[in-house]
Amino acid sequence: MNCFTILRFKHCALNKSLIEHCFIPYISTCQARFYVAESENRYRQRISPRERTQKKALRIRLVQNFKHTKRKVEEIIERENIWTIPNLLCLGRIVTSPFLSYLILSQDYQIALWLLAFAGLSDLADGWIARTWTSQASKLGSLLDPVADKLLVGTLFLSLAWVGLIPVPLTCLVVTRDVVLVTAASYIRYHSLPPPKTLARYFDPTHATVQLAPTLTSKLNTGIQLSLVAGTLAAPIYHFVDHPILQCLCYITAFTTIAGGVSYLLSKDTYKFLRKKTSTRTSS
């Protein structure tokens, strides 16, 4: 309502009560806004700079506590059950490796051959169980299975090379490749571990941070290596040491060992992080 409106009301000979009736709601609204603004100013003036600093510090501390709690909850959710049948079979192969080495160095090849057959069956069984029953699959198993295989194969090659049943250059090739792959897997584990990166969390098997996926060439190489070891163990028992088939199998093993290592470098899906990070390439 402007001045022209008021003058118009005046010329129309409206009484004073009608004009007041039109202006009262507008005046009441202005007074209410004025009182609210004045109250806010008085409240701000009463708060000292020290109190403002304390409130700001309190807000920061609350946000930090919330983030810390969220991180702890995520860690609890990520923990998995490691006491599965495939994982126990992998641990059995790891424990069997030094005993196999002792039998080979003692030239007790027949018992070593039977024990190797049991280890090979357990390797097939743990993969079949993990694929058949999802409750038995675990992220730890994807890391533990290749580690157990490499430890078993490396121990057998070193022991057979010591007694002169396997060429030393082939043993050096197999062991060097496995050491490089295990070192790469250890680095991936450290890189995938969220802060704080402590030794306790690094060696905590229930805290899964990465999942490994061996290549098809690497699986084929493991089978050929175990076949060579089994044939070499059987050679003294059935008297076919230095047989041409074993010599040919040594060359095939060397070729697949190199090809398996190269496949890890070329493949893009050999591992993936489990903490919202994209999959990249490396070895297991």
From TrEMBL:
GO terms for biological process: cardiolipin biosynthetic process. One of its GO terms (molecular function) is cardiolipin synthase (CMP-forming). GO terms for cellular component: mitochondrial inner membrane. The chain crosses the membrane at residues 111-130, 151-176, 244-267. Keywords: Lipid biosynthesis, Lipid metabolism, Membrane, Mitochondrion, Mitochondrion inner membrane, Phospholipid biosynthesis, Phospholipid metabolism, Transferase, Transmembrane, Transmembrane helix. It is found in: Mitochondrion inner membrane. It catalyses: a CDP-1,2-diacyl-sn-glycerol + a 1,2-diacyl-sn-glycero-3-phospho-(1'-sn-glycerol) = a cardiolipin + CMP + H(+). Pfam families: CDP-OH_P_transf. It comes from the Eukaryota. The keyword Transmembrane applies. Its EC number is 2.7.8.41. It is a multi-pass membrane protein. PANTHER family: CARDIOLIPIN SYNTHASE (CMP-FORMING), CDP-DIACYLGLYCEROL--GLYCEROL-3-PHOSPHATE 3-PHOSPHATIDYLTRANSFERASE-RELATED. Belongs to the CDP-alcohol phosphatidyltransferase class-I family. This is cardiolipin synthase (CMP-forming). It comes from Atta cephalotes.
